[in-house]
Amino acid sequence: MLRLPPHQTSFPTSITDAVALRVSAGAAGAYVAGGTDLYPNMKRRQQEPKRVIDVRRIPELNRLDVAADGTLVVGASVTLTRFLRDARVRAGWNVLAYAAGEISTPLLQNMGTVGGNLLLDTRCNYYDQGYEWRKAINFCMKKDGDTCWVAPSSPRCWAVQSSDLVPVMVAMDARVVLAGPDGERTIPAAALYHDDGMAFLTKQPDELLVRVEVPALADARASYRKVRRRGAFDFPVLGVAAWAAFDPAGRVSRARIVLGAVGSYPKQVPDAAAVLIGGTLDDDQLDEAARLASKLAKPLDNTDFTIGWRKDMAAVFVRRALEALRRP
What we know:
Elements: E1 8-10, H1 15-25, E2 29-32, H2 38-43, E3 51-54, E4 64-66, E5 72-75, H3 80-85, H4 87-92, H5 94-101, H6 106-111, H7 114-118, H8 131-136, H9 165-171, E6 175-180, E7 183-188, E8 208-214, E9 220-227, E10 238-246, E11 252-260, E12 267-268, H10 270-274, H11 283-295, H12 307-324
Parallel strand pairs: 1-3, 2-3
Antiparallel strand pairs: 4-5, 5-8, 6-7, 6-8, 9-10, 10-11, 11-12
């Protein structure tokens, strides 16, 4: 049986108190809400905080509503179940409800949170093992070692960003609000991520993710398509989010395509999205956009399926995501 390492848990009821506790704990502290990522990592000794700061009792982090300007406001501690079942989310941002429903199982959706999925630890076949297994290969660069076993000569870690919500949030130009010792700051969701399997977040360690703000779709449409081995509870080995805004004549005026689970951060594909501008998503446009997008998909031996097949699927699933935008 895997057991949690010794630690203390605090239950602050305000953002200020939570941040103060995290600052005082230093490198030995960690925020937690649902714990579906942190606690398994602790059991595998991938993360070993001495003080865990449970933020579920902070009212602001449980907010879920629509602002006066039509922006969807989602507190970081809102559970995935509550989020995907909310009538307002399903009516105005159904792609987000769909993506949340693709995460894990209903049991874990009851515990897992929107914020937790956005901050999900990067994954890798060599890292996501028990302590004894990792010790047997002399650990890896991401925890306790100095070698990336995916690319042993590489100076960096290649663990992949495997969230389902992240590509969609980036494609929809969502914003995240972070609170730290110096107050709050708001950044685009895309700016939250680094292209590095270890230092994969731009969020400072003592900053708390407070909420996510998602613009209304208005004249736009969005879709998400996912590749995984099993039809349920698997992390994506490829996630494709597509977003397009349309003018009154039905032509694409703006577009974004984002690839998830093919790198350490969500990869935007502006060249592929540019192909769609001014058109009506005809077959030639979709074929060219899929071809260009697949060029950025350069999978390594760090997740499921063979490398070649995963790369081939990038073009297939980009096209499927764009096809879904044809239907209002």
